[in-house]
Amino acid sequence: MSIQEIYKQFKEEVQFLSIYIREAHPIDGWWMGRRLTKKLMLRMAPKVSMEHYDPKTIEERRAVAGECETALQYGVRTYIDEMDNHVNDTYAAWPTRLYLVGLDGKIVYGGGLGPYDFKPSKLKATIEEYLKQLSTS
Amino acid sequence: MAIIAELFDDVKFIFNYRSKVMKQQLALNKLAPKAGDLAPDFTLSDISGKESVTLSDFRGKKPVALVFGSFT
Fold it and tell me: On chain A, which terminus has fewer CB atoms closer than 10 Å, C or N?
């Protein structure tokens, strides 16, 4: 189950926002492009980039986010966290995380820390349940 | 032998980095919004920098799925 699939299924009823945050594995950070780990990463996450440095300006971050959007073809509009990483820190989002915010502005689903607890299937189940509740209330 | 040395070197690098970043992330995670909390509001710009979105603008209109991530 991918985010793209969930987006296609629910995009009329749910607003999807892709929030681009600081890099998970830039070359000048926790780089996974070293030798053997590169092979492992390519197996586990073939679309991940191992060719980018951590952006130092918002313009650089926007540029990398644009490349990401083009490469992954999510279909979801991407918005960029500022260089102070405020939204990332507030939502403890790094490296990857999912949330569902209800009509009342409250969190319906807060996924666990990625990558291991990044579970699109749980988001989908929560969306289905939430929409069902809305339709019966 | 060289492959084993490379593997060991990679594992050591990952382990050291992981210890450092996970400590920071777990500290932030304790403060992260949970189910039932009001979602912290934000306004962010898109890739062009010209159009922005504010989370609270969707209140009463549509539920919002937030997908956080990066290219690397």
Answer: C
Asked whether the beta carbons of B15 and B21 are under 8 A apart, the reply is no
pLDDT tens digits along A12-67: 999 999 999 999 888 888 887 777 777 777 777 778 888 889 999 999 999 999 99
Q: Out of B10, B56, B63, name the one closest to residue A14 (CB).
A: B63
* Strand ranges in chain A using DSSP code E only, listed in sequence order: 15-20, 78-80, 97-101, 107-110
Residues A58 and A82: their CA atoms lie apart, in Å, by 6
Long-range contacts: A41-48, Cβ < 8 Å, 24+? A45/A115, A47/A71, A47/A72, A48/B71, A48/B72
The answer to whether the CB atoms of A25 and B44 lie below 8 A apart is no
Q: Please, which residues bridge with residue B46 across strands?
A: A79
Cβ atoms of A6 and A127 closer than 8 Å: yes
Distance from CA of B36 to the nearest CA of A (A): 5
- pTM value is 0.90
Tens digits of per-residue pLDDT, A77-120?
A: 999 999 999 999 999 999 999 999 999 999 999 999 888 889 99
8 Å CB contact of A107 and B42: no
User: Which alpha helices (DSSP H) does A54-119 contain, by range?
Assistant: 58-72, 86-90
Which domains, and CATH codes, for chain A? 3-136 (3.40.30.10)
